[in-house]
Amino acid sequence: MKGLLLKDFYNVKNLISYYALVAAVFAVVSVVSSNIYFFCGFMIFISVGLVSSTISYDAQDKWDRYALSSGVSRRTAVLSKYVFTVVTILCSLALGLILALALGYRQAVDFLPVVAYSFAGVLSVGIVLPCFFRFGVEKARVIYMIVIVFTVALMVGGISLFERLNFAAQAPWMLVLLAVLSVAILAISYFVSLRIYRNKEFN
């Protein structure tokens, strides 16, 4: 597992540098405008973009065939992608929370947008990863874009509704709910991806 994760991070190291630069720009924009949504929205693209790139590189290098013939189990191969995804989302969440603190956010309701957008990242990955395993990154790219637009719109609408209805007192419970839903979505998505991957042949 450790070797697979190191391989994935090594493959996307240049992409991580690029994303870090763009994230820094969005962070500055968020600080100047006192609006964290710019930064949080970009974090969704990072969450899905990095894992999709690892799968794309694996397909180009025919890595799956080599790994499976070398004794890597299909369960481990699929699980490594989800662990990679969780690591990137948690890093994005941590950066979002740090930025929120820098902007002077202190109440649970203030952190809700950060957690909500991280949940959007989880939801996006939960939907598109099985599609990537089934169809490949290139063929599933349209699905990927539709899911991103859908989840961003869902989060923007949900947060706006939450603020309009003045549910600030329920913010702590909402944070817990989003965390529980994130775990459930990733678990379901993992088992779906594993079933697809087990039936897939690599030539």
UniProtKB/TrEMBL annotation:
It comes from Candidatus Borkfalkia ceftriaxoniphila. InterPro entries: ABC2_memb-like. Keywords: Membrane, Transmembrane, Transmembrane helix. The chain crosses the membrane at residues 12-30, 36-57, 78-105, 111-135, 142-162, 174-197. Pfam families: ABC2_membrane_5 (PF13346). The keyword Membrane applies. It comes from the Bacteria. The lineage of its organism: Bacteria, Bacillati, Bacillota, Clostridia, Christensenellales. This is ABC-2 transporter permease.
